[in-house]
Amino acid sequence: MSERLLLEVRNLSKVFDVSKPWLERVLNRESKKTLKAVTDVSFSIKKGETFALVGESGSGKSTIARMIVGLYPVSAGTIVFDGLDVTDPANAARFAKERRRLTMIFQDPYASLNPRWRVDRIISEPIRAFGLMRDDKEIEDRVGELLRLVRLDPLDGQKYPHEFSGGQRQRIAIARALASNPEFIVCDEPTSALDVSVQAQVLNLMRDLQGQFGLTYLFISHNLAVIRHMATRVGVLYLGRLAEVAPTSGLFRTPQHPYTRMLLAAVPDLHGFGADRAAAVQGEIANPIDPPSGCTFHPRCGLANARCKQEVPQPRPSGNALVACHAVEEGRTTTAQAA
Amino acid sequence: MVDVLLEVRNLRVEFPTRRGTLVAVDDISFGVRKGEVLGVVGESGAGKSLTGAAIIGLLEPPGRIAGGQVILDGRRIDNLPAEDLRRVRGKQIGMVFQDPLTSLNPLYTVGQQLSETILTHNPQMSEQDARARSLSLLLDVGIPAAKDRLNAYPHQFSGGMRQRVVIALALAAEPELVIADEPTTALDVSVQSQIIALLKRLCRERGTAVILVTHDMGVIAETADRVAVMYAGRIAEIGSVRDVILYPKHPYTVGLMGAIPALDSDVERLAQIPGSMPRLTAIPKGCAFNPRCDKAFERCLIERPNPITVGSRQIACWLYDSERTEAAA
């Protein structure tokens, strides 16, 4: 892994308009409603590493992924890919040339492959779209090579997606993502729809490919065990804000943010026979349309005080990590642990 | 055993199709003791949900029980007329489904649905009593401001709160057995742990037995007393949770345990089982797991293994056939 930054996200925000239609709003004298899906998120990813985003539903992880690949426009903030600010419209033409270096793998392998296309056409689409190869024979050879890379048979290119199992489909999606020789792949819950034995195949394959091609991954998942297995660094999201960013080993050994601790305490453990986790977790994730004031985690946090209810905590360095928590900053967590 | 609550004997579930009959659950047998939590794990298509549906008589046609018996409290229930089975369902066996939104009626308040269930099973009860009982159920499952929430509709609840209501409904008639089919799969981890803890507490307090169907081994480890691992419509291995998780014996269970990434260990590579679960149209001859098994030998390709008792557990694998193990020893 080099020290070169491949992707830098600065103060990224995304606001969705969730208001009712104009007429209804005017008749009922309601104001516009917005949902802040992502607020002021900053992180950077080094070349060759796997940066993971973890969070529960509604935490904004997929929204961030979609903004990075350009599926959603950003509301505020910048995304810098290999030194180029891709959120600046002035750079659009330059980014179009770099576009092939950044691809995405989606969660649902049943929805992300066109059922009317044969697999060879699906995989060759990026090659043709980016004009990487023109000769049909050359493209056919490349598709065969890509299928072999993901441990499928080159003859499988003649088949349609419905002829494959979920795990095989996800491998086809990976082959398509690799078709444009990318350096950076955004993986949005790539194994959540798969069974465990198949998940292991896909995770192993993704690691092999990373070693082989020096790929950089942004890996999004709600499964902490999968993240621990795959990631070098982890960002924990809660209601659209980063609660903690830390190297994987540190995060799992000494989680600092109260939310990270709660999340880790909630995961059922293979060796936790008869364990009772009732005390570990309180409450549910709040409504993002009307989030709590101050630190959005305060209603569920055992360490919250008056300051937490008013002031939004900013990420501050704490050991190896960046933690957005007043209690960590003031050293209140250690006393609570001792008690 | 005296305290057996439910006994499933040689249960077989079939789906007749134009191209022939598909066997989704193939000759499985197990028992559930009073107050026990039996986990049923397996990957999609293993037949774990269908086993639950067959026990409670909720198989979607054309699926049907083609053989075997389901015995609850010494009484056979798989061949009951629909009307009698309806009385067993709810009164003796409660059900919790995966998706709490589809198992609640959106047009009735939560209080109405609870009262209706209670009155159906206790026709002599007055409406006020039913309502009071609904309230105490909502309090039991930990719904804040339960009194006001009785008049709320399902859409006004969050996912976790809805699943609590569904659990309250399943327990409304004080059944002896609850079948929970992936009760936390649609929920976030932090909510999942609350729901699992709730289910455990309520069933322990009431002495209710639970069949917990899930694909999550962690949930099984923390909740179940015994576990049945299913593969392609058969039980591969059944035994105490500790035995099966710490010392898996069936090659499929061994592979499955190695494939699960753990929170507390660093492995470079996960164990992987090659291939995937066969489709029902193409179940291999002999042991259904043989094409994916690295220990398979001739017999596995020809003859289907029946459960073999090894210590306190049963394993459907020829590796544990006594003749062979004696020869090896």
Would you kindly provide a written description of the structure presented here, covering whatever features stand out?
- The complex is a heterodimer of chains A (339) and B (329).
- With 339 residues, chain A is α/β, with parallel strands linked by helices.
- Chain A has helices at 22-27, 61-69, 92-98, 119-129, 136-149, 166-178, 196-213, 224-230, 248-253, 258-266, 306-310, 326-330, 332-338; strands spanning 5-17, 34-46, 50-54, 76-81, 84-85, 102-105, 184-188, 216-221, 233-238, 241-247, 316-318, 321-323.
- Chain A is built from 13 helices and twelve strands.
- With 329 residues, chain B is of the alpha/beta class.
- In chain B, helix 3 packs across helix 4 and helix 4 packs across helix 6 (159-171).
- The radius of gyration of chain B is 21 Å and the shape is globular.
- At the A-B interface, helix 6, helix 7, helix 8 and helix 10 of A face helix 6, helix 7, helix 8, helix 9 and helix 10 of B.
Roughly how many Å is the radius of gyration of chain A? Answer: 22 Å
* Assembly category: heterodimer
Q: What's the average pLDDT of chain B?
A: 89
Which shape of chain A, going by the Cα principal axes? globular
Name the chain pair with the biggest interface and residue counts per chain. Answer: A-B, 45 and 49 residues
Average predicted local confidence, pLDDT of chain A: 90
- The residue ranges of chain A in which pLDDT falls below 50 over 5 or more consecutive positions are 335-339
Overall shape of chain B: it is: globular
Beta-strand share of residues of chain A? 15-25%
Distance between the termini of chain A: 41 Å
How many E-type strands of chain B?
A: 12
Q: Helices and strands of chain B, in N-to-C order?
A: EEEHEEHEHHHHEHEHEEHHHEEH
Q: Between the first and last Cα atoms of chain B, what is the distance in angstroms? A: 32 Å
**Number of distinct beta strands of chain A:** 12
Q: Structural class per helix/strand content of chain B?
A: alpha/beta
H/E series of chain A, N to C?
Answer: EHEEHEEHEHHHEHEHEEHHHEEHH
For the largest sheet of chain A, list the strands in their spatial order.
6-7-8-3-9-10-12-11
Major beta sheet of chain B, specifics? 8 strands, mixed
What order do the strands of the largest sheet of chain B run in, or round the barrel if closed?
6-7-8-3-9-10-12-11
Taking Cα atoms only, what radius of gyration of chain B do you get, to the nearest Å? 21 Å
